[in-house]
Amino acid sequence: MESFGIFLHASFSCIVVFTFFPATASENVVNEICQRLEKVEELNFELKKQNSELKLEMTDIKSDNLELKYTVDKMNVWIKSGKFQANNNMVESNFDLEKENLKIKLEMAELREQMDDIRRVNSELKETVDEVKGWMKFKQFPEIKKSKSEIHITDEHLPRIPYHQANEGREDKSIRSVKRLIPPAPDTTEQPVAFYAYMNSYHAPSLPRHVTLVFDTVQLNDGNGYNKHDGVFIAPRTGVYAFHWSIKIDVHSWASVEIVVNGTPIGCAATESQRVSDWHTGSELVVTHVNTGDHVFLRTQENVVGYLMSNNRARTSFSGWLLYA
């Protein structure tokens, strides 16, 4: 008997196992497979629902972050203009606001990683559903002597990560890939894949480690693989890709930015201007094999000192293109 399964993130507590009847199976077997397919699609719907809820939470966090930044900036203006006499209480208040701001940034980074996990599961489920639909359409089932299929869902609702866990490190953030019974059909499309995006202005100062960088201005997005809202490129086709990124920093700053494929760093670029009073830039180019649905993004490799900059003199940017399939 041959089968394949889907193993989700530990927090989802969900196992999906598929096994197929021989090509000579009766119509009852076809109906049973349709029912199992519907269960898989229901699970996919639940994951998409959780994805939407995470996006709403990120929107609320971003709003709170902007309000805190506005308050801090307003206090700094008062202090510099002489209209506000700082004292010990106000210094402590400013320090608390900065701590809260950093906590929110860490929460946002954790939520982005959770969204990456959900997108990866959705992509794997979609590929599995498409394969089963293809077999159902042409009634071409692999020959198997015995069959057995089970779907166990131990939690009625998929859990959400509370905010107080956002700054706690997690050692295992990976999701096991789906083991396919039959390899996916070859990609016959010839659509080109290429993207180029850059930051429109300054990024928040002193970013912590492993914050995903978002390049909000998109100049090219053939294949629609890049998302300007979360900074993640999802490969629409399997092949060998080239990725390039450049970073610009303010005076007396330091930054190290790495490229990540499905949670694994494969390259890094750094630049610093701590000993001089001018702007510096750094860049890097990598070439790697990427599969359909893989997630590629940039994140801070260490804590950033100072600002990441981007203007018409030099851009902090991210680009990639398919060399060959």
From TrEMBL:
InterPro entries assigned: C1q_dom, Cerebellin_Synaptic_Org, Tumour_necrosis_fac-like_dom
Segment forming the signal sequence: 1-26
Subcellular location: Secreted
Any one annotated GO CC term: extracellular region
Domain of life where this protein originates: Eukaryota
Pfam families: C1q
Keyword tags: Coiled coil, Secreted, Signal
Coiled coil: 30-57, 94-131
Protein's UniProt keywords contain S-adenosyl-L-methionine: no
Main location: secreted
Domain C1q, chain residue ranges per copy: 188-325
Gene3D superfamilies named in the record: 2.60.120.40
PANTHER family per record: C1Q DOMAIN-CONTAINING PROTEIN (PTHR22923:SF116), CEREBELLIN-RELATED (PTHR22923)
Protein name according to UniProt: C1q domain-containing protein
Source species of the chain: Magallana gigas
